[in-house]
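Late entry, written up from scratch paper. The run itself happened at the end of the previous shift, but nothing got recorded in the book at the time, so transcribing now.
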Amino acid sequence: MGPRIDLNADVAESFGRWRLGDDEALLPLLTSANVACGFHAGDARTIRGTVAACADLGVVVGAQVSYRDLAGFGRRAMDVDPADLEADVLYQIAAVDGLARTAGVRARYVKPHGALYHRVLDDEGQAAALVAAVLAWDPSASVLTQPGGRLAARAADAGLAVVGEAFADRGYGDDGRLLPRSTPGAVLTDPRAAADQAVGLATAGRFGSLCVHGDTPGAPAIAAAVRSALAEAGVRVAPFADGGR
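Output as recorded:
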């Protein structure tokens, strides 16, 4: 069989009357959905509607956990005591998983968001706290993160399944890390450019999942271009985890 890869995106990031992204158009293009848990974005009704849509579409639900930072969309650096972070992460996972269960599915993986995503690549204590929360919730769950960081190492040491993630719509530096969003070229909004990058990443054989950010302008068009390009390149798009029914 040829190469295969998962396609994920950040969803449920609206809050009340404030709308962000086009989840209705984006979700049918995905195999996995990183559902906001209410700490950086997402309210209870939005989360519930999103996990129900995932259940209807056969899209795997994941909990996208973050620092408690609604005002900063989870992208502000924060210093959080590891015990507090462990409890905060567990609280967020439980919310998404609980709402998913009412739709007949379960959350199957955890992905950190924003500042937490980058912090756990290097911070041993914060990575350990996130791993402890996932273990307390479900030792059979997967952790979605960039390869080579402290989170990947700690999760693997703890026996958790680790899925290496790459980004179709973000620019990379020479060190293999994402460029800061303030840097020119950090966000790829041209569907063709994102699709070309996605094919290169998918065929490299190092990653299990590709991400398109739900808040990137034109995210559904980018995701559609990515899927089309992957199909043309002979890459099968399929979830890395089961749907949890």
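The radius of gyration is 16 Å.
(Scratch paper discarded after transcription.)
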